[in-house]
Amino acid sequence: MALLGAALSSCGAEPGGNVVQPVGGQEKVTVKLVTHDSFSASDAVLEKFTSETGISIEVLPSGDAGELVNKSALTAGKPLGDVLFGVDNTFLSRALDAELFVPYRSPALTSVPEDLWLDPQHRVTPIDHGEVCVNYDKSAYSQGRPPPAALSDLTLPAFKDQLVVENPATSSPGLAFLLGTIERFGEDGWEQYWTALKRNGVEISSGWEDAYNGSFSGGAGKGPFPLVVSYASSPPAEVHYSETPKDAPSTAVMEDGCFRQIEFAGVLRGASEPEAAKKVIDFLLSEEFQADLPLNMFVFPAREHTPLPEVFEKFAARPDSILSMDPERIEKGREKWVTRWTELMAG
Amino acid sequence: MAALVPLAFVGLFFLWPVTNIVALGISPRALDTLASPRTWLIVRFTFWQAAVSTLLTVLIALPGAWALARGQFRGKAFVRALLTVPFVLPTVVVASAFVSLSKSSLTAWASGGIAAILAAHVFFNYALVARVVGAVWGEMHTDLNDAARTLGARPTSVFARVTLPFLRPAIAAAATIVFLFTFTSFGVVLILGGTRWTTLEVEIYRRTAQLFDLPAASALSLLQLAAVVLCLLVISRLGGNGGPFEPGGREVAGSKARGGRRQVLAALGPAAFLIGIPIAALVSAAFSNERGPGLAYFRALGESRAGSTRFVAPVEAIANSALFAAVATVTALAVGGLAAAVIAGRHRRGRSVYDAALMLPLGTSAVTLGFGLLITFDTFPLDLRSSAVLIPLAHALVGIPFVVRTLVPALRAIPQGLREAGLLLGRSRWEVARRVDVPLVWRSAVVGAGFAAAVSLGEFGATAFLARPERVTVPVAIYRFLGQPGSLNRGQALALSVILMGLVAVVVLLTEGAGQRRAPGPRSAELRRAPGPRSAVLRRRPQ
Description:
- The complex is a heterodimer of chains A (about 350) and B (about 550).
- Chain A is built from 12 helices and 11 strands.
- Chain A has about 350 residues and is of the alpha/beta class.
- The longest helix of chain A has 20 residues, at about 325-345.
- By secondary structure, chain B is mainly α.
- Helices cover about 75% and strands about 0% of the residues of chain B.
- In chain B, strands 1-2 form a two-stranded antiparallel sheet.
- Classes of the chains: A alpha/beta (about 350), B mainly alpha (about 550).
- At the A-B interface, α2, β2, α3, α7 and α8 of A face α5, α10, α13, α16 and α20 of B.
């Protein structure tokens, strides 16, 4: 089907034209995929897609999620590539307001649960999701000294000087965690919560890298803080990337207060290969790409019934209740909240 | 004509894109930003930390400059290379070294807040002062000091009245660059400053890249530019017209270098503490793993776990970095060399404005420039945005000031009489430049080029904000490893950092070698007999 589709679309684009066709009967096309620096996919999966469709994917990493969206907003209409992957629900509203995308409803969307869709006009397609949760260093806690079980525990004296969080002004998990606390404690309660966290000695890092690798005592870090804001999938990542084979991670996830990040892809307005770009969206939702996602980006596939790798099945947390917030509300509130947060924490 | 080439280069790749992005964002809301007390707090802190960092760097690095110029000890070239290494290290890596060191009580003071910011700034910029000033110090005739001493001057007053005036232009040049670097400090302040300490640069990044508040970002960018211009003008006043400078005095026969071993140790002590310890910590972390010392991280660099698009062969990253550095350095040398010749030329009005224009890229927010390039080169004459060409060009913009700053004092020091003699003998201007100017400024040019190359190798500024094609450089590869959890990723980032350090050390040793080969030679021996410079020094000396 994909073969036929590609052949048809290339004929449709050039009716009667003398296009030089490669042996497979397809026109060779390169689609530029503008994405964030964390993008990763297995070479074999991409190569298979190319050999089936004649479409090669060129990856253009463009900074973190925020930089990616802002760069794309600056170049709206004259985009850097054809497809954008990596805008999440916290930046979605800004991307849609900047009219970055043209609508495309992928046939594969039916296999994605509707609560991940978010955009009824299908300008963006959900590809994966991940949950930002507090992680803890298992060695720091024991039977008599249990780890925190809920967001509200973090302000207790038992967890004084133990938590490191990322600055929401410069970090996407940091922002997600802040949004989670606003969702949980409400517009009038979150400032009080953070004041209590501050009194309890919360440490602030500028980004995930220095929080998890530098300040956190679990995982690869040798820092002094046994609690860190990270992802529900960090424990499997720790096992997967361990230098010596590990049976179990040294870290675990506190399952309360997790905030969901959903990552989307869309066909960029002004793309030079719009038809091939749609095929790439379909590909991103394909069974193969979806199954390849977890070990590359440590996120959960959006497609239902995608088999998960063993480390995920064993060690990733699947919290029962997950916090989320409407993208429009995030866009409206972000600057106000982040500014207020900065005042609270600096003061 | 020659004056126009550097201006055109800076105009095309710097002024135009920056103007575009500022113009896009500017709106009446900019006034709100300028009126906000928070803005002025940031401005104050930016100035303050830059001034203190510069002062500290100069004070701590001056003895180092002396040791590099006058000290005689084995492994000098190696020490020189080692001191330059911090210059290119990714901030995240350095910050993690500082954080991991904070556990030892010796360095606990540097683990957070302002002290850490200042210490990191000294760490990064020490080499700049030590090497730029050291290069000039090495050119100074020791018989000048000897003469003063013979006349009964005490060592302190010899230093204050002979050595310091001689070094002043070089100190001013190095301090200017350190000031601009720390004024626009990004990574250090972002990571070590916490929520409390913010520079204009960090705020512009936050506004542009995270909040997408272009009006505020434009206002802040203009403010930053204005502040930088102001500083440059003040500094050029303070630094003066460049004092006298005597060519060819290096390793003068019969003048024994005065650096005994004890003095050298004392002079380099602070550097050993501030630079040696963090680097040693990084290196030892890279060469050990969970099971003890070993090469596991280096071996892991060679294998791709998932065969994924993220994987970059280290060899490829090193090749990319080396290629960009080569192009950037050649560009910076060519453009900066022309500019230096123009600035050093006498009787030219508007020299300080010209000079300041070339320095501006150093003092401009990387995100402003990066986003400016993004919206400027989208159609003209072709879409350069995702082309690899912009990367070395952006690096060259930062490299040019180094070349200019190291070349101008050297060029000014060449007595005009030498050139005139050449012209009288019927040589063409070009040939005079080649036979007189080039040999005399070669050493300084090498120092400048070395820094331009180092800047390019370690750059993670403006180009980080361009859409990068799959031309991954070593710093970018390091950040990619740090972006994923697991000890193996962290270890590989460290291993790659060590490779980057090695790369820079090699560049420094190579340029060093080139400088030695070309430096004094028979030609400068002739020049030493030429009349002029020495008496000029004596005449100009403060009475």
